[in-house]
């Protein structure tokens, strides 16, 4: 069951990343905006999910499918690095540095923000009960 | 488009499972499992981006498998949780992952270009 949940989550995450990548694709853009958006949105959702979303789902297999399968596959580290290498190869050094720093700094920010949002929702629900 | 999406889905399932099994085995106090899949996947994708014009295989392998094998969100979450536990370990994790990730992708890229 665990394996099926992770495989299913992995499928959905990868396909969604693929589609968003096509949707946001701009032929002349230098900055890899689609991957940045995907990685930041995925990090925010993961932060929220671990703190709050997983409490709603409760089923451990489903939590694994969403967290490790879906969110893990939706975001990508290999594409991030390959894009930096390609930018450097094209001589776009300052874009490469910007992309690296923005991803690293905002990635942590996105996860923290997601966790904060999750704990605010948790507290709200606690107060209502 | 439909065929590519199916290929991405198949690759995504395989990549997610591979990441899960490696993480299960190797993620302890230090997330070595996530570290290894991220570095290894970056090397393979760096190698692969020099290839062009194999559409379905691109989707299956690069966008599907390698995209799902490696993860950015888990990395960020582990950085935040490690920071709360052990500040020296988080620095090691940050520096190792980001520098070796880039070096791995660059090495793959150069190696493939030479062949």
UniProtKB/TrEMBL annotation, chain A:
Activity regulation field: Na(+) is not transported, but it plays an essential structural role and its presence is essential for fluoride channel function.
Localization of this protein: Cell membrane
Catalysed reaction, written as an equation: fluoride(in) = fluoride(out)
Highest taxon of source: Bacteria
Binding positions (Na(+)): 72, 75
MF (Gene Ontology): fluoride channel activity; metal ion binding
Topology within the bilayer: Multi-pass membrane protein
Annotated transmembrane regions: 5-25, 31-50, 62-80, 92-114
One BP annotation, GO: cellular detoxification of fluoride
Keywords, alphabetical: Cell membrane, Ion channel, Ion transport, Membrane, Metal-binding, Sodium, Transmembrane, Transmembrane helix, Transport
Cellular component terms (Gene Ontology): plasma membrane
InterPro entries, A to Z: FluC
Family of this protein: Belongs to the fluoride channel Fluc/FEX (TC 1.A.43) family.
Described purpose of this protein according to its UniProt entry: Fluoride-specific ion channel. Important for reducing fluoride concentration in the cell, thus reducing its toxicity.
Name of the featured protein: Fluoride-specific ion channel FluC
Gene: fluC
């Amino acid at each position: 069951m665990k394996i099926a949940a992770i495989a299913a989550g992995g499928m959905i995450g990868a396909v969604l990343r693929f589609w968003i990548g096509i949707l946001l694709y701009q032929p002349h853009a230098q900055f890899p905006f689609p991957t940045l958006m995907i990685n930041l949105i995925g990090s925010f959702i993961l932060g929220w999910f671990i703190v709050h979303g997983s409490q709603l789902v409760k089923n451990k297999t489903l939590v694994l499918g969403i967290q490790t399968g879906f969110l893990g596959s939706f975001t990508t580290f290999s594409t991030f690095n390959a894009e930096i290498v390609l930018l450097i190869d094209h001589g776009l050094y300052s874009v490469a540095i910007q992309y690296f720093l923005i991803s690293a700094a905002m990635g942590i920010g996105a996860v923290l923000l997601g966790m904060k949002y999750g704990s605010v929702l948790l507290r709200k629900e606690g107060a209502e009960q | 488009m439909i065929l590519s999406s199916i290929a991405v889905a198949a690759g995504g399932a395989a990549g997610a499972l591979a990441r899960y099994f490696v993480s299960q085995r190797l993620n302890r106090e230090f997330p070595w499992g996530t570290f290894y899949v991220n570095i290894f996947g970056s090397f393979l994708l760096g190698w692969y981006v020099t290839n062009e014009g194999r559409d379905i295989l691109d989707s299956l392998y690069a966008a599907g498998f390698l995209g799902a094998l490696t993860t950015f969100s888990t990395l960020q979450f582990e950085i935040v949780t490690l920071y709360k536990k052990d500040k020296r370990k988080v620095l090691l994790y940050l520096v190792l992952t980001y520098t070796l990730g880039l070096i791995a992708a660059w090495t793959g890229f150069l190696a493939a270009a030479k062949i």
